[in-house]
Specification:
Elements lengths: L11 E5 L6 H12 L9 E5 L1 E4 L6 E4 L2 E5 L2 E4 L11
Antiparallel strand pairs: 1-2, 3-6, 4-5
Length: 87
């Protein structure tokens, strides 16, 4: 969904899909986004270090493809919060 996202970057990317798409349009948008063509979808890519997501109806948030909780939700980059060891 965010082909230029990297763990080394000081920010993160959030891909927002609109509600009410047909199944075909949703599938096409997902395929375009996964193949790096998110600009051709009806979704929107947002970059930042602190993002607040809100909604007027109950909407569940997915992180790495797993539903975690309904909106509202705040996403924040915490510098040096994760240590990665690469052999």
């Amino acid at each position: 969904m965010a082909p230029t996202a990297r763990l080394e970057n000081p920010d993160f990317q959030v891909f927002i899909m609109p509600r009410g798409l047909t199944r075909f349009a949703y599938l096409r948008a997902l395929i375009n986004a996964v193949t790096g063509r998110s600009s051709g979808t009806k979704g929107r890519l947002v970059r930042g270090t602190d993002v607040v997501a809100e909604g007027t109806v109950e909407t569940w948030v997915q992180v790495d493809g797993e539903p975690i909780a309904p909106l509202p939700m705040r996403f924040r980059v915490v510098p040096r919060a994760l240590s990665i060891i690469v052999p």
